[in-house]
Amino acid sequence: xxxxxxxxxxxxxxxxxxxxxxxxxxxxxxxxxxxxxxxxxxxxxxxxxxxxxxxxxxxxxxxxxxxxxxxxxxxxxxxxxxxxxxxxxxxxxxxxxxxxxxxxxxxxxxxxxxxxxxxxxxxxxxxxxxxxxxxxxxxxxxxxxxxxxxxxxxxxxxxxxxxxxxxxxxxxxxxxxxxxxxxxxxxxxxxxxxxxxxxxxxxxxxxxxxxxxxxxxxxxxxxxxxxxxxxxxxxxxxxxxxxxxxxxxxxxxxxxxxxxxxxxxxxxxxxxxxxxxxxxxxxxxxxxxxxxxxxxxxxxxxxxxxxxxxxxxxx
Length: 315
Known about the structure:
Layout: H1 4-10, H2 20-38, E1 41-46, E2 52-57, H3 61-65, H4 75-79, H5 89-96, E3 101-107, E4 110-120, E5 126-135, H6 137-151, H7 161-178, E6 182-189, H8 192-199, H9 201-217, E7 224-229, E8 232-237, H10 242-258, E9 267-274, H11 281-300
Antiparallel strand pairs: 1-2, 1-5, 3-4, 4-5, 6-8, 6-9, 7-8
C-alpha cells in the first residue's frame, strides 16, 4: 500500500480537496517553516563543486551575514571569503571528504556557531555540504555577563576574592616555570567604619570606589586589582619586584592624599614578592597580611585626619 500512495496522489483530480494526511503534513511544514524563520538560525546546502544550491532560515539577523540571493554562486561568494584555506570555506572542503566541522564565525558584528557536515544521498555518497549557522551573539553576551558578575565586585567593578585567589595561584604556577618574580599588595582603607557611622554608607561606598579607581589607574591592563570584601583590597603586580611594588603603593597613597573631595582618605598597605616572601599563594598572602597589620598598627598611633562633610575645614 505504501508504494501506491504516490500514484494515488499523482492521479488525483486537480480540483479535489487535499486529504486529511496531506493537510496535516502541509500544516506541519508551514509550522516548521514559521519556527525556523523566527529562530536565529540559517541553513544552506552546496553541491560537490561548492556551489550554493539552497539557503533558508531566519529572515532577520543571520540573513545579513548569509544573504539569500547567492544561490547558484560559490561558497566563497556566499561567505564573503576569497581563499579556499580560510575558515569556514576550508571546512566545506573537509566536508566533501566526509569530515564534519564545528566552529565559531564572526560576521557583521555577530557571532555564529557553525556546523558544516557532508551532504549524502540515500546510498551514503557525499554529494555536497550542508551547513548551519546559529546566531549566538546574545547568548555569549549573557554568558559573559553572568561570568563577570560571578567574578567581580558589584560596587567597585574590581575582581572579587575568588577570582583574585585563582589568578594568584595561576601566577604562582607560571612563575614557577619561568622564574619571573611578581608582587602582591594588600590594601586596607583606613577608618571606613568611622566614615559609615558619621557620614552614612553612601559616603562609605563612594570612598571605596575612589580607592578602587586609583588602583585601576596604577595597574597595567594585564594585572589584577581586587576587592576582597569590606575595606580590604589587593593588587597582583606581574613581573614586578619589591621596588616596583613599593612605588605603586606610594603612588596610590599620594593620590589619595591629593584628592580634594571629602572625606580625606588614607590606606594601609602590605606587600610580598615571589619567591622571596613565599612560593605559594597562602604564603604570599600571609606575608603581605603581616606587613599590612604592621603598617596599620603604625598608622593608628598617628593622628588621623578628621572625617568631614565638606571642604570648609580645609580652607
